[in-house]
Specification:
The protein is an alpha+beta fold and 315 residues long. It is built from five helices and 18 strands. The chain has a ten-stranded mixed beta sheet with strand order 17-10-11-12-9-13-16-15-14-18. An eight-stranded mixed beta sheet has the order 2-3-4-1-5-8-7-6, with helices on both faces. A hairpin with a 7-residue loop joins strand 11 and strand 12. The protein is globular and about 75 Å long. The protein binds fe (ii) ion. Fe (ii) ion (FE2) binds next to strand 9 and strand 13.
Length: 315
């Protein structure tokens, strides 16, 4: 039986500085505040869903839950059954948890790398259309979900088996290369037309390396890059383009220390014709860490640069 499409429906982050996150999410990413909960949590919108990112207060500064969206309660039940058959513990979510995530229902489990994950159905849709003050084109979501996440894996092989054999994800490709002296080996998987929804190498310091959101216009990537520069957000990789998903994007740090990727122009996968390949480079161009760029040459000194007045002749 073919596995149903799974989409990244929502992300929950536990963050230590909600104020910094609110400014960052609204002014840099262009998301909007959907609602504030009694415990200080902040729900964010990026499309017609009532919420896509939930920020909860706490010291972890990390991913708290990876939320997968399925089409129905029946599909959630079918995937939950596959998880239990494969030996993974599945816990039903409470009514309160479903209300907090703004979904019709959910179950919880940990993936092979220990990432807290949830399967849900029936996301609540907002009454008002989404309008960002800074990302005018809006975001690519719909049947591609909210974006992608690159997560930590205890073992790439175990996580590959988990996402492919248990959840039914399909391999998109690998990138295996040497990058500034570091060995890169990342496996990319899709579960809907988005080129990849999940990717992992090996163990990371945090549960999440980065999450990606995709604007509908190239200009909105450039404008987000300018906003990040002006606000002093720590840029990790300059503008560039990946060879596998063809995403034009940049990377920078969230207030929690893990990264975000802001992109445009990602490629879609058609399973009928897709052939997984292995790339030996991570970017076609760009994506340079700013510290690896050559320092700007100093212009030659001019008279205006000298502190002392021009020498006078002796009397
Ligand atoms: Fe990415």
């Amino acid at each position: 039986m073919a596995t149903a499409d799974m989409k990244l429906g929502y992300l929950v982050f536990e963050v230590s500085d909600l104020g910094a996150w609110e400014r960052f999410a609204t002014e840099i990413l262009g998301l909007t505040v959907a609602r504030r909960l009694d415990d200080g949590s902040l729900a964010l919108r990026m499309d017609d869903h009532e919420q896509r990112i939930l920020l909860t207060p706490g010291p972890a500064d990390d991913l708290a839950a990876l939320g997968w969206e399925l089409a129905s309660a029946g599909e959630v039940e079918a995937v939950a059954k596959k998880l239990t058959t494969a030996g993974f513990e599945v816990t039903p979510g409470t009514v309160e948890e479903a209300a907090e995530r703004r979904v019709g229902g959910l179950v919880k489990y940990e993936d092979a790398g220990g990432i807290p994950s949830e399967l849900s159905f029936g996301p609540a849709l907002a009454k008002e259309p989404f309008r960002s003050a800074v990302v005018r084109s809006g975001f690519v979501t719909g049947n591609q979900g909210l974006g992608h996440a690159v997560i930590s894996a205890r073992s790439q092989d175990e996580s590959k088996k988990f996402y492919r054999d248990v959840l039914g994800f399909r391999l998109s490709d690998h990138i295996i290369c040497d990058l500034h002296g570091y060995k890169v080996n990342i496996a990319f998987f899709h579960a809907n037309p988005r080129h990849h929804t999940i990717a992992f190498g090996d163990s990371q310091k945090k549960r999440i390396h980065h999450f990606m959101i995709e604007a509908r216009s190239m200009d909105d990537v450039g404008l987000a890059f300018d906003r990040a520069l002006r606000a002093g957000v720590r840029i990790i990789n300059t503008l560039g383009k990946h060879p596998n998903d063809k995403m034009f994007s940049f990377y920078a740090k969230t207030p929690s220390g893990f990264q975000f990727e802001f992109g445009w122009g990602g490629r879609e996968v058609d399973d009928a014709t897709w052939e997984p390949t292995t790339y030996d480079h991570i970017s076609e161009w760009g994506h340079h860490p700013p510290e690896f760029l050559a320092p700007r040459p100093k212009p030659p000194p001019t008279l205006a640069d000298t502190d002392s007045p021009p020498p006078r002749g002796r009397n």
